[in-house]
Design brief:
Layout lengths: L1 H16 L3 H14 L4 H13 L3 H14 L4 H13 L3 H8 L6 H13 L3 H12 L4 H11 L2 H14 L3 H13 L7 H4 L5 H10 L3 H14 L4 H13 L3 H14 L4 H13 L3 H14 L4 H13 L3 H13 L6 H14 L1 H14 L4 H19 L4 H4 L3 H14 L3 H13 L7 H12 L4 H13 L6 H13 L3 H14 L3 H15 L13 H7 L5
Helix pairs in contact: 1-2, 1-3, 2-3, 3-4, 4-5, 5-6, 7-8, 7-9, 8-9, 9-10, 10-11, 13-14, 13-15, 14-15, 15-16, 15-17, 16-17, 17-18, 17-19, 18-19, 19-20, 20-21, 21-22, 22-23, 25-26, 26-27, 27-28, 28-29, 29-30, 30-31
Length: about 525
Amino acid sequence: MMNDIDNLLDLAFDDYNNGRLNQAEQKARDVLVWAPTHGDCFYLLGLIAYKKGIYVQAIDLLNLAVKAYPNQKNYQLALGEVYQHSGQYDKAIKTYQPFCDMPNVQAQLGWIALAQNKKDMAKNIFEKLVSTDYAYLGYHGLAFCSGKKNKLKNLTTSFQLKTNPIVAKDIVVYLLEKRQLDEIEKYLDFIDDDLLLSKCLIEKKDYNQALDVLKKYIQKNPYELNAFLMAGVCAENLNDLETAEYYYNKLLSLDKNNLDAHKSMGRLMMKQGKLPLALDYYQIVLKYDNQDVQALLALAVIQETLGQYDEALGLYFRLQTLNCKGLNLKIKNCIEKLFITNKKLAKKFAKGWVKSYPENKIAQKLLKSLACFFLCLVLVFPLKAENFSNDLNWDLAWTGKMAQMGDALSQYELGQIFEKGIGVPQDISRAIYYYQLSAQQEHFPSMLKLGQIFSDNKAHQDLEKSLQWYTYAAQSGEVQAQLYLADYYQNERPDKLQAVYWLEKALHQLFPEAQDLTKVSPDYERLKNESEIKE
């Protein structure tokens, strides 16, 4: 029986050493059924719990192991390490105390002093280690005691003295922070952290290899949240949206309140044109963090696209209070779109904008333009009841007057009236005429309208003109036009570089913090440099 227990425990340790934590845990618990006080079994289960980050359980199990074999040094050292990493420094020091003559333990005491902000004590401990055969431990610790200037120098010295995986990992982390990606290559073979390796590969845009590493890592560590997030990012960059969605959903099944997962799913839904679903994901993010700039901006764009202009404007103004840049044209366009359906509310938003930002010239110009409409009501057409039979004719009359005076917004609204036949016979030719007048004054929504008419209206279809107006609108920053061109160059007139270029433009407006999310071609940078595309 004892031989069977020992063999099973050996297999459990083998599973643990090869990263098969669940299998190791099951075998160890099977051993406990037959040997309920087995110290080695408690030790292994403690290590597994520690590896999974369950510190309370790890401490209880390792204490049982120490109680069973009080003279087993490894058990006490493991217990001290768990106390240390769970922030229970006094208990860690007490557990380490009998082994203070060991250089490894001295180094751990230095790290504890550093964690307690006792830098002089930590520096003293590490400097003593430098003069011993364990100098690499001393230089490693001094790297974190010294200023930024000497950090890399001390880390490199430590690594040269002994190619330690922990030191290699710290060097790679430092180089990543400093964006010194060319220097990372020489240390990658030494680090034993697959998550960090994947992060390096992602930074180098080697998404295929990073995903392969992450898939193997996830098999061994099925509860590591960051692994699923990084795998989703890799798949998304490879334009495999189905796989990306799988990993993000897997992350949400492990942590339903994970904000990164909700933002990633929102981004995926937007890429696929599923705006109501995207809306739901971003609203969950704002429920937990109402100042998340990325979520606020995406939500505003979605609501504007869905015609919910007042809600979108509320979000744009919130973003301005958070010092988010590049919102002036978005706010202007949104107020102009709202003006078509609710003139008084649009003017109220414009007034509020000028009041909050009195030096904003775009806001001042917009308010002046809107005010002209209401001035016409008083000065140009004082006899409303006598001259016009109803409000619709009245609106049409003064809108036409403002359009004749050269107001771009009025010309756009008149184009809408003739395109849809609101109170007048539908006349697409006249709609095009007024949209062109407005577009020539750089009114972006008018450019977008012209692109749509020349593309979709059979009687006036002219694909070259449509492409021309969509391109003008896209170059002016209209997200809808940029997304149209991305789809056009992917499906109608295949041109991978153009498709990626416009999709990247659109998504970088929606997600200004995102980096290289849509570079689906590994040759993108080369092609982009060779291209003559200009904004």
